[in-house]
Write a structure and sequence with these properties.
- The protein has 394 residues and is an alpha/beta fold.
- It is built from 15 helices and 13 strands.
- It has helices spanning 5-16, 56-69, 77-80, 84-97, 108-119, 134-141, 155-167, 190-200, 222-225, 254-263, 265-269, 275-290, 293-312, 331-343, 373-389; strands spanning 33-36, 39-43, 101-105, 125-129, 146-150, 173-178, 203-207, 234-238, 248-252, 323-329, 346-347, 350-351, 361-366.
- It binds 4'-deoxy-4'-aminopyridoxal-5'-phosphate.
- 4'-deoxy-4'-aminopyridoxal-5'-phosphate is lined by residues 107-109, 133, 135, 178, 182, 207, 209-210, 238, 240, 248.
Length: 394
């Protein structure tokens, strides 16, 4: 029998270091307020940026899709066929993103596993920002290409690595960056990265999971934000955050998408999104195409909360988006802060190593358009109370 005490020992160590994640069970939907263990708490953890996870139009679209298509896709699309609702979502998503085509996958995580190994071989080089998301890192690990890691948001260091990769004989160069870095909320310097990629003939891929529905006009993402349409080869996105549902996608040229349909393993070997998810995501795209009010509300809320937190004396890092890290650095303090907030009626998780580097623990506050001003004032009040109590605020 395997000796499971090795796992128990590691779990205990995590607990002792304030790094054990305790998953909460919700007794309510992902709204602005949640019920957890019978207690009503303000939700400051979810990526439901626009409040779409519980929006009536999306719920109705999911129910209609179930009535029309049932609950399961049958098998992988290359074998069982594509439901026309998948085609509708991919076409309308492409129109929304202003690209030629999109391919929808089961998650944003899977979208990175799909695209990176499919388009690179051992003859190629992949260049990745040092703080790229875990799903990019794992996607890169699945490729046989040589890896180069460049300093976070440093286009000059990227150029050095591009030169090096060329000198070392790489055939194809693939540069990958997060659009929005999910733990700090800072943006990739995309215009500079585009210039470097054009100079060295590299393909550029941006994972815009936290930019979709957040940045750019109507939430079209970071490419729209910087007006770089046509100059970024591959956009990876998620339907699991601002779009309020679950799923991921790749957006780009028709040839790229046609190629991925033949080569991308999560597309070829794993069943597609269910009809309900697909129908709901299509409804989300249609809302955003016609109405940018939720995106405007999200930004109004984010600015209000961040300004007030900074005025109180909290260190909120250098976020440029609604992701608001409340930097506490020490993992135990951060964990204690989160526990106290919960007791005060706020659900805001502490994030520590390995999700963020050691010594950079924080409470990551996720602002949503679903929050009212009263909700935010309630949160500010509680942050101030706990901040003083734990000596974070003087
Ligand atoms: N990429 C980035 C940058 C992310 O932050 C996330 C979600 N944490 C993902 C991909 C994965 O998205 P999904 O939850 O749809 O798998």
């Amino acid at each position: 029998m395997f000796d499971y005490s090795v796992f128990a020992k590691e779990l205990k160590e995590l607990e002792e270091n304030g790094l054990l994640v305790r998953i909460k069970t919700l007794e309510s939907p992902q709204g602005a307020w949640l019920t957890i263990n019978g207690k009503k708490v303000l939700n400051m953890c979810s990526n439901n940026y626009l409040g779409f996870a519980f929006r009536d139009e999306l719920k109705s679209a999911a129910i209609d899709a179930i009535k029309k298509w049932g609950v399961g896709p049958g098998a992988v699309r290359t074998i069982a066929g594509t439901l026309s609702v998948h085609d509708d979502l991919e076409r309308e998503l492409a129109e929304f993103k202003k690209v030629e085509a999109t391919l929808v996958l089961q998650s944003g995580f899977n979208a990175n596993q799909a695209v990176i190994p499919a388009i690179t071989t051992a003859e190629d080089a992949i260049l990745s920002d040092e703080l790229n998301h875990a799903s990019i890192i794992d996607g890169v690990r699945l490729s046989k290409a040589k890896r180069y890691v460049w300093k976070h948001r440093d286009a000059e260091d990227l150029e050095e690595k591009l030169k090096q990769a060329r000198e070392e004989g790489a055939r194809r160069l693939l540069v990958i960056t997060d659009g929005v870095f999910s733990m700090d909320g800072d943006l990739a310097p995309l215009p500079e990265i585009v210039d470097k990629c054009e100079k060295y003939g590299a393909m550029l891929m941006v994972d815009d999971a936290h930019g979709e529905g957040v940045l750019g006009s109507h939430g079209r993402g970071i490419v729209d934000h910087f007006d770089l349409h046509g100059r970024v080869d591959i956009e990876v996105g998620t339907l699991s955050k601002a779009f309020g549902v679950v799923g991921g996608f790749v957006a780009g040229k028709k040839e790229l998408i046609d190629y991925l349909k033949q080569k991308a393993r999560p597309f070829l070997f794993s069943s597609s999104l269910s009809p309900a998810e697909t129908g709901a995501a299509l409804a989300a795209v249609r809302i955003l195409q016609n109405d940018d009010t939720p995106v405007k509300k999200l930004w109004e809320n984010a600015r209000y909360f961040k300004e007030k937190m900074q005025a109180m004396g909290f260190d909120t890092g250098h976020s440029e988006t609604p992701i608001t890290p409340v930097m506490l650095y020490d993992a135990k303090l951060s964990s204690q802060f989160s526990v106290r907030l919960f007791e005060e009626g706020i659900f805001a998780q502490s994030i520590g190593y390995p999700t963020v580097p050691k010594g950079k623990a924080r409470i990551r506050v996720m602002i949503s358009a679903a929050h009212t001003k009263e909700d935010l004032d309630f949160a500010l009040d509680k942050f101030e109370k706990v901040g003083r109590e734990l000596g974070v605020l003087k």
